[in-house]
Structures are given as C-alpha cells and as structure tokens.
Amino acid sequence: MDRKIGIDLSRHIYEMQREHPAATGELTGILNQIAFASKIVHREVSKAGLVEILGLTGDKNVQGEDVQKLDDFANQVFLNILGKSGHFCVMATEEENGPVCIPDGYGRGHYCIALDPLDGSSNIDVNVSIGSIFAIHRKVSEGEDGTEKDMLQPGRKLVAAGYIVYGSSTMLVLSTGNGVHGFTLDPSVGEFLRSHTDIRIPEKGKIYSINEGNYPYWSTGVREYIDFLKQKDKESGRPYAARYIGSMVADIHRTLLKGGIFMYPADSKDPKKPQGKLRLLYECAPMAFLCEQAGGKASTGHGPVLDVEPTGLHQRVPFFAGSAHEVDRLEEFIRKYDRK
Ligand code: P6P
To answer: Which of 118, 264, 268 gets mutated to test ligand 1 (max ligand atoms within 8 A of its CB)?
Structure first.
C-alpha cells in the first residue's frame, strides 16, 4: 500500500528518527515549514509568465545584484513562515544585509537558518530551472535571541541542508546527516513524496560544469585541468561532456544524480569578487554537505568547503564539487600548477 500512497516528508523523517533516536521532533517541524514555504514559491514560479511578477523590482541587493520580483517574493515568504514557526532564533538570507531577528511576539527556537530564497534568478525570465537553498545549524550563542555568531559556523557542524529545484517537476532534496533523499511535489495532493532514496554520486562522472567564458580569469591550475578534460583520450572517456545551466541548484542536482564535477573557481574578473561568485553560508556549505553525504566531495581547491570557518554572512569561496575522483584530481592540478 506504501507504493500506492507514497511516503511523504513527515513519514520519512519519522522513519529516520526511529533509526536515529537522537533526532528531535523539532527537525520534522522545521522541514515541514520549509516544504510549506517552497510550495508557495512553487505556485508563483509556475505561473510567473502569466502574472505581473516577472522582471526586476528596480532594487539592488547587498551583492549589488538586480533584485527580481520573484527573488523578493521568495525572500519574504521564507522569512515570514520560518520566522513565525517558533523553531529559529535568527535567520540570514542572500537578500538581507545582516542577521534577521525573529518577529516580536513569536517564540525563539534552538536553530538558525541561512537561505538563498531563489537561486539562479537571472534565469527566471527565460524559464530555466531555479531553486531555493537552505542550511540549518543549532544555536550556539547565549540568551534567547540568536546572533551572527550562530550563523558563522563551519559547514561541518550543519544539522541539515538541502534545496528545492523548481524545474520540470519541483523537488526537495535534503540531508539530515543520514544520506541524501529526494522528494517530488505531487501537485494533486500538495505533498512532497519520496522519489529518490539515498542518492549516491557516482565515483566517476564524464561531465564537467563551469562557465568557460571566465577561462582567461582562472588560475593556471584550473585552466590546465579544464584543458585536460577536453583532450582526446578514449580510455579515460575524455573529452568529457560540458553541461552548464547557470543555475547552481540545477547544476548540482544533475551532478548529484549523474556525477562529474561542478565548478565556480576564484577568478580575476571582478576585483570585488576574487574568491569567485558563490556564497559560502547559503550556497557552498549546504551543497557541500549534500555532496559529502552522497559520497562525493566539495573543495575550495585547497581543502574541504565544510572546514572553512566563516568570517562573514556573504563571504564567497571558490567551489568544486561532485564525484570524489574528479574533485581529488582537480586539487592535484591546483597543487601542481598554482603557487600558493
Ligand atoms: P555565472 C545564479 O546567479 C548563481 O548565483 C548560481 O546559481 C550560478 O551557479 C551562478 O550564479 C552562475 O554565475 O557567472 O556563470 O552566470
């Protein structure tokens, strides 16, 4: 009968808790609230072309990037629902300069959350998959209200992380530290039903994913690695296939399922972003957590992303993630060609 009905998010987490009694019921509440918020975003994203919600707000966010109307909508939805859930003591999102306090009159919980409410928003108007990314830590500061200290924890301490990809179907992919599992939204019942149990990244993959337009700005090691992947060598399956969607959630989703390597290196293109474009707290750390939980790796080029001690809410890091064999080889090229 399970196959007929399907296993929803709550049932899945309950099953996880039976195997890991240390997990509190609070995580169930948190993930259900994230799922609820994502259903609201899904509703707007899926009809974006039909209502006046496409395009720009005319504002710029803390990154200096144009804010899309859907960016702003998703940011408000997640902050409103999660801020009033009673589970969090403080929040941070790509769209907000500093930590976001819990509204007066609402309970403070034992967790904090970093969010990219709508990643890949530059693709919204061309109907390419976009996503929401979340990273959940336990509160570590004293007192009832959370602080920036709660947000600035290394990814190695994450309690849970995941993303929602709004694509041909809407999927929630998450880990609570016991493997990676995928849930597909069934709009007919309005529930996320488990569709991918224990996702494992293939040890090797013949796909590389990077914005090659930045080639002139990369380090020698990264250029040598990309050149290597493009050489003809039948035995090792080279040249690899190039796939780049330009939406991190979509590129990581493919990498989790098909293997290979996704990269956003440091580059010399923009002096304001010497460490590349992707943000540590709400893009790289949660995606690194998922990749490691799925048997893959995620590196800054010099070591695990999960071991980076954050110094700022919007700090950027170079990011290389996917099949363990590919990430190891990338690091070898950087050790060989790039002087520290
Ligand atoms: P580029 C989307 O704007 C984003 O933050 C990620 O989702 C994506 O991986 C990256 O930027 C794409 O950046 O410079 O290749 O367009």
So the answer is: 264
Residue 184 bridge partners (DSSP): 171, 193
123 lines ligand 1 (CB under 6 A): no
Mean pLDDT of 249-269: 97
Sorting pLDDT into bands at 50, 70 and 90, what band is 14? confident
Residue 208's pLDDT is 98
| Res 147: pLDDT | 95
Tell me if residue 313 falls in helix, strand or coil. Answer: coil
Put simply, whether the predicted model's pTM sits higher than 0.85 gets the answer: yes
Q: What's the pLDDT score for residue 241?
A: 98
> In terms of DSSP H, where are the helices of 137-214?
148-151
DSSP character at residue 204: S
159 alpha carbon – ligand 1 mean position (Å): 26
Using alpha carbons, list the distances in angstroms from residue 20 to 173, 176, 178, 185, 218: 19, 10, 9, 26, 44
- Which ligand 1 atom is the nearest neighbour of the CA of 130? 7
Which string of DSSP letters, residue by residue, matches 28-62? HHHHHHHHHHHHHHHHHHHTTTTTTT-SEEEEE-T
Ligand 1: centre distance to CA 131 (Å) = 12
Q: Which long-range contacts (CB under 8 A, 24 or more apart) does 110-113 make?
A: 110/26, 110/138, 110/139, 111/26, 111/30, 111/87, 111/136, 111/137, 111/138, 111/139, 111/159, 112/88, 112/136, 112/137, 112/138, 112/139, 112/146, 112/150, 112/151, 113/30, 113/82, 113/88, 113/137
| Lowest mean pLDDT segment, chosen from 57-71, 98-112, 206-220 | 57-71
Tell which atom from ligand 1 comes closest to the C-alpha of 119.
Answer: 7
